[in-house]
Amino acid sequence: MLGLIHNELLVIAGRWRSYIGFIGISILMPLILWGFSVGGEELHRDYARELGGTFMVVGSILNSFLATYIIMNTLWIHIPFLVTLAAGDSVAADGANGIFRITLTRSVSRFKILVSKLMASYIYTALLLIFCAFWSLGIGSIVLGTGDLIVIDNGILILDESQAWVRMAFSFLLAILVMCMVATLCFMFSTMVNNAVGPIIGTIFLIIIGYMIMSIPLEIFEKIEPYVFVKYFNVWWDAFKDPIPWGEIGKKLGVLGAYSVACFGIATYVFLKKDIKT
Amino acid sequence: MILETKNLTKLFGLRKAVDGLNLEIPDGSVYGFLGPNGSGKSTTIRMMTALISPDEGEVFIQGKSVQKLGNKALSSVGALIERADFHKHLSGKTNLEMLARMDGTNMSRVQTVLDRTGLGNRGKDKVKTYSQGMKQRLGIAQALLSNPKLLILDEPTNGLDPQGMKEVRDLVRELASEGITIFISSHLLDEVQKICSHVAMISKGELKTAGPIEDLLKDSDLLMTEIHVNPLATAIELLSNQDWIHRCEENNGILSVGVSHDKISDLVQLLVQNDLQVSAVIPRTSLEDVFLSKVGKENQI
User: Fold this and answer.
1) By a Cβ cutoff of 8 Å, what residues of chain A touch chain B?
2) B221-284, CATH topology level
């Protein structure tokens, strides 16, 4: 299995499309960090105003942790698109390019091939988010420095630097798991068609529909809402709550996990039954 | 038998692409698989290699059912299905290494098969820089990677220039001489006749005939006979009116007549009785003639 995953990673690494996400992050992150360093005073004043009645603020509130926290909030819609670039290609491209005529005639089971492709997509997804963390936390720490993280959400939570590192790492771990669910959804679509664009559009379309259902205040949509996977995407936020709501995190990951299993189950059924005619 | 199909049937919608196909491929043979476009050749080969599931019937490779065991039954098979497609952005060698990793094949085989197929010096180049002929050779290289006992080649010379076709033909002959059983589909009857020991012909998904080429040519109820006759035009006019003559055509001043074996003497007698000068009668049955007699002229390859 490790050999098969190795193969899939080689294929992903060889496609220029796989680097779009990394290039995008490499362009976007310095821009955002530059924006924070230039316009940081304004942000500091806004935060200090919010905290003014309760706390006396010494030094700057703005640091790499706060910047990362804000970046994660804003990039949340866009990261799924970057994740789908590899997952969408995963099965569909091999079908379209005729690679299956060679790989699926070998004495390796289709299931193993499918699992290796999914694992490679997960690794790509994790690397993308780790790269994001490298920029916002790593380079961000050099540009903006570190310090306490102040989270304003249903109250004020102040995490000291050592805690902030742990919470950030946990948050990114949760984000990786969420994005793996997105990758599985896209992967499922990838087994159904012979082009990479369809799975990407299908996945983003479902995510947008999910966000729409959540944002339109209609009773019928509120009833559907618990079944919409997008509702649980915000699990990474729970890493910044005190105390950490483990039960809530478990429930959200459970739902996303169930969706992932269902998507992979469908993908397996489709792929094992698929006639390779291309 | 190294490869057998039993009642193999595949439907695409209501159309039967393959209809109850029974084939028996003997160990060590070079087995040609002939049929016009859309006759079901590729569908059959894809069912043999687990790319397509049959609606009925089974494929057995060394007695193991492909449908029951899936890809495990293909451990002794190397296959090249139609055009050889690889990851173009990777080198030929990397592509083969990936396949070797899949099978658990020893990596040293990669260079061996590259050398064998004449790609030893180009292995490190990206596949996108390869000519069609080189890609096809790389396709054969991947099929040879796991030291197969049975090689299944679907139209391996498609898209190749005459030199490339000759190279593939020579390679197939060489592999056959080493005892590898080769099942090869081709449009080129002449090519199949040159390299195959056995042949099967299908049309509209149905098997029309199968067996050793020698027997098929011998047993054919049609014989193409070349006749050197004068005057040619009179001979053509005379023979075209005979219902026992299946074909009658002029080819570079020589008359080619399709006639069953037992009618050759009648043919000569008829020509002589009509004051035509017959200087030579040469039987020349080719696989094409057998094909036309079995599959029909409307289905010419």
Assistant:
1) 3-4, 6-7, 10-11, 14-16, 97-110, 113, 273, 275-277
2) Alpha-Beta Plaits (3.30.70)
Q: Three-class SS string for B236-248?
A: HHHHHCCCCCCEE
Q: What mean pLDDT is predicted for residues A88-101? A: 85
Ordered by start, the domain boundaries in chain B are 3-212, 221-284
The arithmetic mean of pLDDT across residues A186-205, rounded, is 88
Select from A11, A102, A104 the Cβ nearest to the Cβ of B50.
Answer: A104
- pLDDT tens digits, residue range B139-153? 989 999 888 999 999
Over residues B225-284, the pLDDT tens digits come to: 888 888 888 888 888 888 888 778 888 888 888 877 778 888 888 889 888 888 888 877
ipTM of the complex: 0.73
Cα B25 to chain centroid distance, Å, stands at: 13
Whether residue B283 has a cis bond before it, omega within 30° of 0: no
- Alpha-carbon distances, residue B255 vs B111, B244, B274 (angstroms): 52, 16, 16
Say yes or no to pLDDT of A193 above 70: yes
Q: What is the pTM of this model?
A: 0.80
Alpha-carbon span A19 to A86, nearest angstrom = 9
Least confident of A49-53, A95-99, A148-152, A205-209: A49-53
With H, G, I as helix, E, B as strand and everything else as coil, classify residue B55. Answer: coil
* 3-state SS, residue B229: strand
The CATH classification number of B3-212 equals 3.40.50.300
B54 burial level (CB within 10 Å; 0-12, 13-18, 19+): buried
